[in-house]
Every structure is written in C-alpha cells, then in structure tokens.
Amino acid sequence: MSSNDAGTPAALHNIAADGLLSRLGSSISPELLVHALTHRSFAHEHPGMPNNERLEFLGDAVLELVSTETLFSVHPDLSEGELAKMRAKAVSEEALSAIAREILQLGPYILLGHGEKDSGGDDKDSILCDTVESLIGAVFLEHGIEGARITVHRLIDDTLAEVATEGPALDWKTSLTVKAHGLGRDEPRYRMQVSGPEYQQIFTATVFLGDEEQPLASGKGSSKRKAQLAAAEKAWHSLSEQAPRTDNPDDSNENASKDGK
Q: What does the alpha-carbon distance between residue 94 and residue 100 come to, in Å, rounded to a whole number?
C-alpha cells in the first residue's frame, strides 16, 4: 500500500516498497526505509517516531561528494566556478524533485501528516527533494560510500550530462531570465498544458514575460522541465533578435550588465 494508507506506526511495515527500491537500485531495511520516508509532519502526529531530517542531512553530503567527484573527473578543463555552478544545478531542488517524480515516482510513498497530505505535500518540490536526499543517506548507512555512489549515479547521471551541455549559464531558463532582465523586460513565466495518456504524457510549455499576453515561444517535452527548457531556448533566441548585440548562453552572465546599459 502507499504511504497515504499508512495511518499508524504499526502499519508502516506494510508499505509496498519493492517498486520504489527497484527504481532506486538498492536495498534498504524496512525500519531504515520507514525512517527515510517519514516527514516531520508525520512524526509530529506519531510521538516517538524519528523524522528523516538527519538522513536528509547525510544524503545531501553524499550527493554533493559524488556529483563533485564526477564533474571534476569528467570536465578537467572547467574552472572551479563553472564546476560549482553545474553541481548546484544538478543537485538543485528543481532537479531532485524531477528525479523524485520521473524516476522514483516517490510521492505516494512519503509518510505525511494529515494537514501536509491534504495540502498536496506528496507533490511539493521541497518535500520530494528532501526525501530523495534522505533515501541516499539511508543507502549510505546500509551500503557505505560505494553502494551510495552507485545509487547516486543511477539517479543523477542524466542530469549531470544535461547541465554539461548547457554551458556556464546552466540552462535556457536561467539564460532567458538574464536576457530579459538585460533588456529591461519582466521575469519569464510559464503556462503548462499536459496531453496524452498517463503513461506517455506530453508536456507543452508556453513562455510569457511578466503580464504580457503575447507568448514568446512554446516547447514540448516528456517532462515539465524539458518542455520549459525547450520553450526558454526558443524564447531566448527570439529576445536575442531584439538585443543591441549578439551573445549566447555561455557568456550571458558576463554580458547581462552590458545588455542592460
């Protein structure tokens, strides 16, 4: 059963977690798995139960170590600053919550208090991100750094490869925001639509600037993030035609102040 069926601590060991562990690519003892999935709101309603915040703290450190050593090895020509920006993007709340949804399908397994559950906590970016980190912490405790390294690579290698192709500005959404600000325009906003069957959904993102009703561009993808990146890339090129000079995402941070002059 899912976490939303688990009303008392006695029921927690009945969580049907085989699918989750298969997607995670690791085994975790039932007790430690329950610990990793227990949000503080659930622990508050069940006195004596530990929440997953200490495991989250541990997993965050493991995730940072593995992502750092990977980027350091794969990109010997990049500066410390460029590596730090890529790592920040790869382990960001946005990236980890996407992993939670798309790879782990994690939401239904998280143990939440009634109020948090009723407010949609099982799909909140912050909770999904934190729970991914707590699971990594649990894998580290059970299997050590080598076991944790395998799990981290399974989860984030695609993201690490993706941010490596996006340049120091990290992604097209970041680049579009810099470009818009440099032209004195408002913050980009995205309107989402979803089509297709649940097992093969297509996301369409349409990007606008501020309160403007005229869209800049649209993009499609197999996830919300991919659709927004596709739309942002097209919008960036559209805005670039309005700029007094031609630049590109790789040096957008450097040129933002120049564009705004």
A: 10
Q: What are phi and psi of 192, to 5 degrees?
A: -105, 145
Ligand-binding site membership of 133 (annotated):
yes
CATH, domain range 172-260: 3.30.160.20
Per the residue annotation, which of 5, 18, 53, 60 is the catalytic one?
60
Sign of CA dihedral 195, 198, 201, 205: positive
Q: Is 123 a catalytic residue?
A: no
Please state the CATH superfamily assignment of the domain spanning residues 3-164 in this structure. Answer: Ribonuclease III domain (1.10.1520.10)
Q: What is the CA radius of gyration of the chain?
A: 20
In one-letter notation, the amino acid at residue 37 is: L
Based on the residue annotation, tell me whether 80 is a catalytic residue of this protein: no
Q: Which residue is catalytic, options 116, 122, 133, 162? A: 133
Task: Please give the Cα distance from 132 to 100 (Å, whole number).
Answer: 6
36-80 pLDDT, tens digit each:
999 999 999 999 999 999 999 999 999 999 999 999 999 888 888
Asked whether 215 and 180 are in contact (CB, 8 A), the reply is no
Are 15 and 1 in contact, with CB atoms under 8 Å apart?
yes
Question: Going by C-beta distance under 8 Å and a sequence separation of 6 or more, which residues neighbour residue 18?
Answer: none
Query: Which of 84-98, 162-176, 182-196 is predicted least confidently?
Result: 162-176
In the chain, domain spans: 3-164, 172-260
